[in-house]
Amino acid sequence: MSSSIDNNLITRPDQNLGRVISSITTPVSKVRSTKRIKRSYRHIRAENVFRRTLVIVALITVVLVLGILLTLVVQSTLSIKASGIGYVWGHVWDPVRDIFGAYPFILGTLLTSFLALFISIPFSFAVGVFLGEYHPKGWMPNLLKNTVELIAAVPSVIYGFWGLAVLVPIVRSFETKIGVDPVGLGIFTSSLILAIMIIPYAASLGRSMIQMVPSNLKEAAYSLGATRWEVIRSVIFPYTRSGLFAGVLLSLGRALGETMAVTMVIGNTSLIPKSIFAPGNTMASVIANEFTEADHPVYLSALIELGLVLFVVTVIINMIGKRLIKGFTN
Amino acid sequence: MKKTKTLALTAVAIIVTGGMMLTSCNGSGTGSKSDSTAAKGSEEDNTVMGAGATFPNPLYSKMFSEYNKSTGLKVNYQSIGSGGGIQQLTSKTVDFGASDAPLNGKQDSALSAPAVHIPITAGAVVISYNLPDMKDTLKLTPDVLAKIFLGEIKKWNDPKIAAVNKGVKLPATDILVAHRSDGSGTSNIFTTYLSKVSKDWDSKVGKGSSVNWPVGLGGKGNEGVAGSIKQTPGAIGYIELAYAIQNNMAYAKMQNAAGNFITPSIASITAAANIDIPADAKVSLTNTAAAEGYPISGLTWILVYKEQSYNSRSLDKVTKMLNMVKWMIHDGQQYCAPLNYAPLSTNAVTVGDAQLKTITFGGKPVLQ
Questions:
Q1: Assigned fold of A77-329
Q2: pLDDT at position A181
Q3: A180, A293, A303: best mutation site toward chain B, by most B Cβ within 10 Å?
Q4: pTM of the shown model
Q5: CATH value at residue B325
């Protein structure tokens, strides 16, 4: 009997102790208490099952990521042996002669991603501030919010088509005006496409962060005579800095890995881009382009190593980002 | 209230664990699957698996569906690219592979047993261009073409182009070269041709389904290259004939080895294949010696193992498959022209027939 009381106490810490004691003394409530004991056993079991499930599922995720990394390393050993460390800064990618240098693609990936980030930040912060601070409610902000979220939902191949049909001719006429080779396709065009695609990530995170700024902070600033802009600059931005930066990091991750839309507008050449208007290539788009017809083992392995490099670059950028976020929060 | 919570908890736990059990079962599931298909032997004998080239896929789909109507044989063809098809044949996961290029030495030695090439159809790569003010059809010589793709000829009014196109007014615009960015049989045929006609190209770039292009923009697929050509005045690029015809694109006449300027067409491709074809059918039609043949043409092949008795396949299945391939190079040829593929020349059919007869099952020839 005493054990049942213990159980009751363990599972129901909120329960009134007096009721437990009274349930022991009266026979009617005794029946009720055994029922409750049975149920509390079930409770404990369910708790355990649920907790174990959570741990297992979480572990599977970790194992999967490590598994992917391991697969990439194992599959690219052939290429690592053939090209060595020179793979990373080799300037020539020549599948016919088995010369594999990933430098033009690493450069292309970093150029397009950071340029896109640069272009998108003003837009995503503007959307974030507008929706978070100026007009959090109403039909117009709702429409804006949903439209921005829709940007993230549109498949990337559609951006590619749109870029090829609409953006490329516009960029071409712009290039004619400023006097560079009017190609239309290239690093600049893909950065524009990428910029549009990554706006929602930083915007929606920024919006929720800005909404979470305690109103007493803002009210204090207003009461001191601060204007709206001053409140945003000196209260909201400092308070949400790490959150805004996390949104930017999320956008960057998306830009680094984007394949389809970039492939369609970047011009796909293995030459090192001479300017941001020149055609180039990214790691992801080279893999997508050449994987199906990689007809000898070293070539295939070199493409897989490209995937490994992309993986490592993403991890490094993420780690730097985490460091910066930590620095902001402190 | 508490009861519903418990219920919800257990439900979640059951769903999650159930999902995991399902996924873990999948691993062992493949083993039992093969047992069950072995029991239904007749159905497996009626299904043939193939994988490979994307270029002949529309034609193959048509042929396989027509053949299925008359015989009931199901063909599951995955157009994953020539390289992929060869890999799957090497690992023996398909009954036949399909490729736009004959097996090279490396690929041949990777196979565990010798394979047989059977030509099915021929196609051409055409040189498409965008010169809005030009009324006449552009003429090109092999030398000019190679120099354009090497980046040595940069303007349309270059004297070398003008010398071939006498009396035609060429604009002073820059040439923009467009090529395939994805590895493809089309690129392979095109670069093989350039390697044959230009020593410079052979030493600087070489041939393959992806090469290191000295100049130009890469587009994904025929549609990517065609898009670049259509959008940019002064562009030149190579695409499949069928694609060019379907999209009303301008394409150049090419000078062939005999010195004639040939317009690419189904007739001129078939003519290109009217040459002495070696017994193993491994021949590139590029730079053909045939006087009326279009020089940038190529055959596409189905690849099967010479010895068909492997992986416990039945003789019944092998016979059915080989009869289908035989049908493809005879009666099936009627479906080529409507889809803008070139029918095989008589020489090619003869070689294909001879090759089919060399295929054995347990050492004995399958087809008589």
A1: MetI-like fold (1.10.3720)
A2: 81
A3: A293
A4: 0.79
A5: 3.40.190.10
